[in-house]
C-alpha cells in the first residue's frame, strides 16, 4: 500500500554559480529548494559591478572559453556571447633591477620554455583531466608513476627550474606568472595544480593562457548568473547568513544568523573553503576537512582595476615580491583618452585596491610614465564570505585537501569551484560542474529514498 509523502526539500547555501545551478537542477527533479545567500547580491566570487567612473568591470571571475564544457553549455543555453581581450603591443618583465621590454610574442617565447618544464608529466599524471585522481584510483597504475604523482604534490611549483639550465630571469618570469595564477606565494604552491591546469588545456601553455585570460562575456558574468537565477522558482533569500548546520543521515537543520531554525531533507553548501570557519557544524567537520579550513589554501592575493591616462597596450610581469605580478590592458577609452588595466598579485596586504598612490607605486615598477587616474577592486581575502580569491593549492593539498569534502554519510553536501574535479578553484566552469554533479547525486539519493517510503 502506498503512503503519500511530502515533496523532498533541499537548502542551498550560497547563490554563486554553483549554488544557482544546483538549485535549478534540484528543482528540475521536482524537489523544493530554498537558497540562502549571506551577501546582498547573487553571483558569489563572480560579481559584475560599475567602477572607475561607471565602467562595467568584473570584480572576480572574468574569462570563459568554449573548451570549458560546463560554462560553455550555460553560455549556449542562455544565448550569451563572448568577445576577446585586446591584443597587446608592448610587454615588460622584471628580474632583479632590470626591466626587459619586447612584444607580447617575445614574452610568450621567453615564458614557453619554463612553462614546458613546469607542466612536465601533466599527460602522465592526468590522462583524464576531469578525473584528477584516476591514476590513484586505477589498480593497474604503474607503482613508479604513482610514486612520482604523489611526490609531485610536494615542494614549490618553481622547484623544477632550480636544478636545470634555467637562469634567474627565467625563474623570475615563471614566478611572475604563477604568483598571479596561484594568487599566493609560489614558495608554498603545490606543483600539481599547475600541471592539472596544463592537462585541462591539452598540455599546452598557450591554450591555458587562452582559456584563462582571453575571452569575456559581452554582458558580463552578471548576464549569465542573472539568467540562471531567473529560472529558479523557489526563494533566494539575500542578506541571510547560515550560522549552524546540524546534519544527519536523514535530514538537516539550519540555524540562520537571526536565530531561526529551518529543516529540510538535505543541504548543499557552496561556501568557499575560506568561509567555512564561520559556520558551526554538528557533527563537526572531519579532521581532514578541518585541517584544510584551518591551514587555508594558497590564495592570499588580489585583483585590481587601474585606469591610466593615455592609450597604452601593455602586458607586464614581476616576481611575487612586487605588489602586482601580472598586469595587462583590457579596455581602451577613446572618449576619455585613457586605458583600463587589470592586475593580479599574490598578497592582498601589499596594495590598497582603492588608493591611487598605492596603484601608482605598483605600476612604477615597469614604467614611470603611466599616470594612474583611478583604481578599484574587491578584497576577497578580507571578505568574510569568501576568505580567499580562487582556491589554489598549497604543497600537499592536492592529496590532503579539497578531496576530503567528496564523501559524506550525512545529508550535508559540499559544492563549489573549490571542490571541482575539473577547473578546480580558478574559473566558473568548475563551480558549475560541482553544482551539477552534487545536485544530480543528491537527486538520485532522495528519489530512491522517496520511492522506498511510498511502496
UniProtKB/TrEMBL annotation:
By its UniProt entry, which PANTHER family does this protein fall under? FLAVIN MONOAMINE OXIDASE, LYSINE-SPECIFIC HISTONE DEMETHYLASE 2
* InterPro entries in the cross-refs: Amino_oxidase (IPR002937), FAD/NAD-bd_sf (IPR036188), Flavin_monoamine_oxidase (IPR050281)
Entries under Pfam families matching the protein: Amino_oxidase (PF01593)
Question: Where do the Amine oxidase domain residues begin and end?
Answer: 17-442
Protein name as annotated: Monoamine oxidase
